[in-house]
UniProtKB/TrEMBL annotation:
<feature type="domain" description="Histidine kinase/HSP90-like ATPase">
    <location>
        <begin position="209"/>
        <end position="255"/>
    </location>
</feature>
<keyword id="KW-0812">Transmembrane</keyword>
<dbReference type="GO" id="GO:0000160">
    <property type="term" value="P:phosphorelay signal transduction system"/>
</dbReference>
<feature type="transmembrane region" description="Helical">
    <location>
        <begin position="7"/>
        <end position="27"/>
    </location>
</feature>
<dbReference type="Pfam" id="PF02518">
    <property type="entry name" value="HATPase_c"/>
</dbReference>
<keyword id="KW-0418">Kinase</keyword>
<keyword id="KW-1133">Transmembrane helix</keyword>
<protein>
    <submittedName>
        <fullName>Putative signal transduction histidine kinase</fullName>
    </submittedName>
</protein>
<keyword id="KW-0472">Membrane</keyword>
<dbReference type="GO" id="GO:0016301">
    <property type="term" value="F:kinase activity"/>
</dbReference>
<keyword id="KW-0902">Two-component regulatory system</keyword>
<feature type="transmembrane region" description="Helical">
    <location>
        <begin position="47"/>
        <end position="65"/>
    </location>
</feature>
<dbReference type="InterPro" id="IPR036890">
    <property type="entry name" value="HATPase_C_sf"/>
</dbReference>
<dbReference type="InterPro" id="IPR050482">
    <property type="entry name" value="Sensor_HK_TwoCompSys"/>
</dbReference>
<keyword id="KW-0808">Transferase</keyword>
<dbReference type="InterPro" id="IPR003594">
    <property type="entry name" value="HATPase_dom"/>
</dbReference>
Length: 294
């Protein structure tokens, strides 16, 4: 506040200084003694007034720049602290800059939440591999050692199924050989669901994987929790990517689990959103949208 007042006063004096020359000339007309003194030293007087005006103008510009750039310089220091390991930014005292700070802090929080959920997901995958596939393979080895070939073969097939489930959670193998439409049809068939798909756009690899993940999670929830028999999937892109999945299951309230929270964090990192609401088909509608480059 004091700096603002100083800037205003300096600016006032800087712009009023040239008026001093006018008043000196005006006063010299009615005062011959003063006029003689002024005209003898007028170069010095005019130069002094000009110097004061220029100095005050320069100080005004300096203070104004300092006042305007101060918050952004503090923001730069805060960002340097962030790179040094600080978890969040502190407000810098300027409305627009503080909005940027709040947005950065929100993105940092979402990123931390996403990484925590991702670590939990990896931990569960490791447990699934150890407790299921690995233990099954050990049992198959013991069966082979006892000469029980049929039992060993059955256990190896069980281990293969477990490994395929883990691989599907890590990366959708369907998209390596099929386009998105065929991959979603295979996904619905594997879940035992009838699929009605509305897809009229060609998607890049990254977009296709993101869409597949969303639909994969929605179909798993519809089958496991909603006891659905049919799902309606709509995929469109018009300034933003939109994916909606409706099912004809039991509906009811949704308690966000780890998978849903992970999807929500991914959408927020993409400046998008994930929503769920009752579906007109009786079950749940899961809708995701995020901006994309056109």
């Amino acid at each position: 506040m004091r700096l603002r007042v100083a800037i205003i006063l300096a600016a006032v004096f800087a712009y009023l200084s040239p008026l001093a020359v006018f008043f000196i000339h005006y006063w010299a007309r009615g005062n011959p003694g003063f006029a003689a003194l002024y005209y003898r030293y007028h170069l010095l007087v005019d130069a002094g007034i000009t110097f004061v005006a220029a100095s005050l103008s320069g100080i005004t510009v300096y203070w104004a720049l300092r006042y305007m750039l101060g918050p952004w310089l503090r923001l730069e220091r805060e960002l340097e602290g962030l790179l040094a390991g600080r978890e969040r930014l502190r407000p810098v005292g300027e409305e627009h800059a503080d909005r940027i700070v709040a947005r950065i802090n929100e993105l940092l929080r979402i990123s931390r939440d996403y990484l925590s959920l991702q670590e939990l997901e990896f931990s569960q995958l490791a447990s699934a591999l150890h407790d299921d596939a690995v233990q099954t393979l050990i049992a198959a080895r013991w069966a082979l050692g006892r000469g029980e070939a049929e039992k060993a073969e059955r256990l190896v097939r069980d281990a293969e199924k477990s490994l395929r489930r883990v691989i599907c959670r890590l990366a959708p193998p369907e998209l390596e050989h099929l386009d998105l439409r065929e991959a979603l049809e295979q996904l619905a068939l594997r879940q035992g669901l009838e699929l009605e798909l509305a897809l009229s756009v060609d998607l890049g690899t990254e977009e296709a994987i993101e869409v597949f993940r969303i639909v994969q999670h929605a179909l798993a929830n519809a089958r496991r929790h909603g006891r659905a028999r049919k799902v309606w999937v709509r995929i469109e892109r018009n300034g933003e990517m939109r994916v909606s999945v409706d099912d004809d299951g039991r509906g009811g309230a949704i308690e966000p689990g780890q998978g849903l929270r992970l999807l929500e964090a991914r959408m927020r990192l993409r400046a998008g959103r994930l929503e769920w609401e009752p579906s007109p088909h009786g079950g749940i509608r899961l809708a995701a949208s995020w901006p994309v480059e056109t």
